[in-house]
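Suppose a colleague, Dr. K., hands you the sequence of a protein chain of 235 amino acids and asks what its three-dimensional shape might be. Before reaching for any lab equipment, you can write down a predicted structure in token form. Begin with the sequence itself:
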Amino acid sequence: MGKNNKKKFLKPSGDSPGGGWKIVYSGFILILLCFFIMLSSFATMEEAKVMRFVRSFANAVSIFPGGRKFESGMAVLPDSADIVDNKNELAKIFEKLEVLVGQSDFDDGTSISYSPEGLVMRLADYALFDLGVADISPEALPLLEKIAVIIANTSYFVRIEGHTDNLPIHTQQFPSNWELSTTRAVNVLRYFSEVHQISQQRLSAVGFAEFQPLVANDPAVRRSKNRRVEIIFIK
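The predicted structure, expressed as tokens, is then:
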């Protein structure tokens, strides 16, 4: 009697012996599924970001460029047209501006980058103006003319921003850096609209004085980077 009861206890009713292996197998399949989903997420990592890291690392440690070194900052490498969607109209403008910068006499004082707003062309103040004045220098006209042609051939709204360092200015014409930065931006705008007939509805100008620096205003060699005009193609 005891033996019969023992056998009935060990034998599950309605199922074949050893049915628990199905649960283990199902768990194993779910683990594999999660693993492949994780692999797929890594596989879809943007190739552009990988390229930026590789180029940045190679340029920083390579002995060929002549002693380049790492620089502090949030960006791995400035954006370039080869790491954005080449079908994007801004990428085409980027390429044209890069060629223009390479051909200009102020290539060390100009840069191009992307921002959340759009495409930014940054020009050092000495590329456009003499020290402490807002009149565009004759040497800057060929560069501005080529930029104007690029602007005219697009439909983007363009904002011109004037920036200074934190050294105060007190003249009859410019009581402060607000007037200097704003007048410089407006003069560039007027050149685009009056000389090249670019629609004023697409253009705007603003002066920020010293209150949006790129770097700390000390020492003087760093302070000079803050004296600039930015031409922004707003996407």
